[in-house]
Fold this protein.
Amino acid sequence: MKLYFNPASPYVRKVCVTAYELGLSGKIEHTSVILTPVSPHDGVRASNPIGKIPTLVLDDGTALYDSPVICEYLDALAGGNRIFPAAGAARWTALRRQAIADGIMDAAVLTRYEDAVRPKELRWQNWVDGQFLKIRTALDVLEHENLEGAFDIGAISIACALGYLDLRFASEGWRTSRPRLAAWSAAVGKRPSLATTTPAVP
């Protein structure tokens, strides 16, 4: 399998953490790419018409995207029900938490593009403020979640979302008013799957 990736992407990190937890890291070849919405990558677009990462190309040439689909495929490949609970309340909780975390990632990545890609004279502060409102509201919800227990797709997604905030928006200081979430993040961050995938990108 071949994974188109960039180490700074929180969605890519989610896939890499999932693969590590499932013992599948050694079966995935990593192909690093640099792209933005205004600078697409032809190799990625050849496999994924949306042109986004992560994109996983299977040995038979089939391409899977995006991170929720890839992670669930890897879980099934490893036997199933390890990262994605099979049914019941645990499954819906894990999927809901994945959705919250992906929402944080979406808002944060869009804000990053606004600062790093959009010409300065075209930047829209009200739009940025709206993205940060989503991030802060989601973090406030997570502060009141009981995240102890299984390291499932919900927990993986949350950990990667928080890691991206640390990478790109350290000045946000999200831990200050969310001590429970901060303590959970510090504890779970010691897992090898997270420690070895921490992006070292300026």
Summary: The beta strands are 2-5, 29-32, 55-57, 63-64. The longest helix spans residues 88-116.
